[in-house]
Specification:
Length: 163
């Protein structure tokens, strides 16, 4: 799916929001010993910090590297679009999860002198959730919403060309 820089920015902002919100809820639930309705509201307290960090890391640090790494496993044009998408998404999670887990550890976990141990624990707990959240919930949701948005633009441009 080809995108302009603006479309890529909007896609990244929306994807980062859904990923960060889901992962913040997950981590708060882990800290509290289980999920409750209040966690959905509590999570918004971390969003103003973690969401922009995720957008910046994705756009300026990890996006190109993730694509480069993914293309070591899949070949656009030869492999299915689905496999290319899954490979890129997997590489994004593989790069973002340890980084975001570290940032969350430092900012919210109060690890004291146990920063490495607490980070490793968070990373090990977060990775499976981040992978499955990205693969089965956030990724399909945002990509499908984006396709609807794009198809709406295509209909408008076709109507303009017909007129």
């Amino acid at each position: 799916m080809q995108r302009t820089k603006l479309q890529n920015f909007i896609f990244t902002v929306v994807m980062a929001f859904i990923m960060v919100y889901g992962m913040v809820c997950y981590n708060i639930a882990l800290d509290k010993g289980g999920m409750s309705n209040e966690i959905f509201l509590i999570a918004f307290h971390e969003m103003p910090i973690m969401w922009p960090i995720a957008v910046i890391l994705e756009m300026f640090v990890f996006e190109k590297l993730a694509v480069k790494l993914a293309f070591r496993f899949v070949r656009p044009g030869k492999d299915s679009e689905f496999m290319v998408t899954i490979a890129i998404s997997s590489m994004i999670v593989a790069l973002m999860c340890p980084t975001m887990s570290f940032i969350a550890t430092v900012l919210f976990a109060h690890p004291g002198s146990q920063v490495v141990a607490v980070w490793l624990q968070k990373y090990i707990l977060n990775f499976p959730m981040a992978f499955f959240w990205q693969t089965f919930i956030a990724g399909p949701l945002v990509r499908n919403a984006f396709k609807i948005f794009e198809s709406g633009n295509n209909v408008e441009s076709e109507e303009k060309q017909a007129a």
